[in-house]
Amino acid sequence: MITTTGLTKIYGADGSRGREITALDGVDLHVREGEVYGVIGQSGAGKSSLIRCINLLERPTAGTVSVAGQDLTALAGRGPRAGKELRQARSRIGMVFQHFNLLSSRTVQDNVELPLEILGRSGKERSRKALELLDLVGLADRAGAYPAQLSGGQKQRVGIARALAADPKVLLSDEATSALDPETTRSILQLLRDLNRQLGLTVLLITHEMDVVKSICDSAALMEKGRIVESGTVSELLATPGSELAAALFPVGGEAAGPDRTVVDVTFQGEAATQPVISQLSRTYNIDISILGAAIDTVGGLQVGRMRIELPGRYEDNVVPIGFLREQGLQIDVVGASDAKTALAKEAVK
Ligand SMILES: Nc1ncnc2c1ncn2[C@@H]1O[C@H](COP(=O)(O)OP(=O)(O)OP(=O)(O)O)[C@@H](O)[C@H]1O
Ligand SMILES: [Mg+2]
Question: Domain ABC transporter: where (predicted)?
């Protein structure tokens, strides 16, 4: 639904002023139809630049963007004659902002009607659509209010209704919940999830909060310094040894008791259970296993369990028991020892 290839944005590349800043450095992103896709990264990683290049608010320096099968970068490159086509293509992309960007002099309803005015729709059609959308976001009774009379969460609901006015296939959200308190954040995320399901809307959201990804995303990518360093469905990420995103989505604590110990994270999804496996392991290899931490949680709608266990001896001494765990279909991740991880990754490739 959204594909970028080699997307690059260098600010100041026109040589007009100051030094060049590479905000996007060859980003390949693929968002499937109907999914909620989260991009997470620290401040300055290039998240906003990515979203602004996807809807061509910002002209990419290189690379392509296609949305719903249409190559937007090619349209933009064709100059003013393609302007109308580009405007239409962009109207199929809804955009939600951190600070709502509502017009304070207009009522809630008039704010929602704005994109339809720009598209030249009739007054009757605009008003019907706006009221329908306000109902959808739970604000049917506030159509005549002004933005200043609304709470932050209500303002964002108006922002979402406005973004949906032209029946977009795709909704882009740049930190839509960053200015909201935790409870309001939850209700806005739930609204985005509901819209995703009810309307089949594809949602690409940018955030620096792992909780946002955890609560509603089907897939996620981690951005660092203008690049995507990890990406996949939540389920794939959780099954990837050494995945930073997986560790952040589902942290489990616990430190090794001493140097001659191997600490292993055992992750399972769905129905699998670790407990019988752990006691079997202990009996089969006659080793004492300590459980350092354990948790069960719902990540991206999946039930996931993780247990951190400690085996006596170093990694080399535990290759066989670790192999046993993996044979049981459990996701195994050796913690801390980077040499051990590399060895394990090599073994996994075999
Ligand atoms: N209009 C601009 N002109 C010049 N440099 C810019 C511009 N916009 C962003 N940058 C720079 O590009 C880099 C990426 O910025 P961007 O806003 O995309 O990051 P971000 O991941 O959205 O950060 P945050 O989480 O703080 O919003 C930063 O170094 C930033 O200073
Ligand atoms: Mg930003």
Answer: 2-250
Quote the pLDDT of residue 344.
46
Q: Verify whether ligand 1 is closer than 6 Å to residue 208 (CB atom).
A: yes
**pLDDT the model gives residue 346:** 45
**Which tokens is 127 given?**
């008003």
What stretches of the chain show up as alpha helix (H) in DSSP? Answer: 47-54, 72-77, 83-91, 108-118, 123-136, 152-163, 182-199, 210-216, 234-238, 244-249, 275-285, 319-327, 338-349
What class, spelled out in words, does domain 2-238 have in CATH?
alpha beta
pTM for the whole structure: 0.85
Residue type, 109: Q
For the Cβ of 11 lying below 6 angstroms from any atom of ligand 1, the answer is: yes
Are 268 and 330 in contact by the 8 Å Cβ rule? The answer is yes
Q: What residues contact 61, with CB distance under 8 A and at least 6 apart? A: 8, 9, 10, 13
Query: pLDDT at position 224, please?
Result: 96
Q: Whose CA is nearest to atom 18 of ligand 1?
A: 46
Per-domain residue ranges of the chain = 2-238, 250-349
Give yes or no on whether 2-238 and 250-349 have one common fold: no
CATH fold, domain 250-349, is: Alpha-Beta Plaits (3.30.70)
CA 175 to ligand 2 center in whole angstroms:
7
Residues 6+ apart with CB under 8 A from 321: 281, 284, 285, 287, 311
DSSP 106: S
